Amino acid sequence: MKRYKTLEDAQIELIELLEEEGEFRGSIEELAERLSVKPENIKPLLQLMKSAGDIVYEEIEDELIIRPATFIPLLPPTPTEEQKEEIEKKLSEGYRLIASSYMGGVQSRELRQAMGKRIIVFFRNGSRLEGRLKGFDRFTLKMRNYRGNILVYKHAISTIVYKT
């Protein structure tokens, strides 16, 4: 019996597919096969990802055309001098840089590697937050620390580090 992935896993896999190939063209059945999900789950998955702003897609007869959504970045966040010094110190201690204003773009591969690990988030306003990365999407990070679950908006972040 074939084992199917969860919609969350399929979502991550579709993002990776689009990162590698730029777009997907094919039938619902072909996409379902590539993502290892049931064909009836494809349309809800696409609608979810479209509403989240991750993809744009269209159906022309029996063919799907799926592309990553493009967006115009806002003012790039820059770390303060204090944050730059602390980041350099953390990197010398063996931490790894996930995302920073001087790296550009969304670092989804790095965030997937950091899932479940302790991360340090440095904010544009000079504050910082430590906790475990529980999930992420295009606009937010879900973290957990001693205060409980925390939703962090990415536009407020200058840099993220974690220890490998």
Describe the structure using short key phrases.
Arc Repressor Mutant, subunit A, alpha+beta, 9 strands, 5 helices, SH3 type barrels, elongated, 164 residues, 34% strand
Distance, first to last CA: 36 Å
Strand neighbour order, sheet with most strands: 4-9-5-6-7-8
Which percent range describes the beta-strand content? 25-35%
* Run of helices and strands: HEHHEEHEHEEEEE
Low-pLDDT runs of 5+ residues are 71-76, 101-106
CATH class of the largest domain: Mainly Beta
CATH architecture of the largest domain: Roll
Q: Count every beta strand, where a strand is a DSSP E run of 2 or more residues.
A: 9
> In the CATH scheme, what's the topology name of the largest domain?
SH3 type barrels
Number of helices: 5
> What is the multimeric organization of the chains shown?
single chain
3D shape: elongated
What's the gyration radius in Å?
18 Å
Largest sheet: 6 strands, antiparallel
Q: Structural class given helices, strands, pairing?
A: alpha+beta
Helix content: 25-40%
Mean of residue pLDDT values: 80
Overall structural domain count? 2
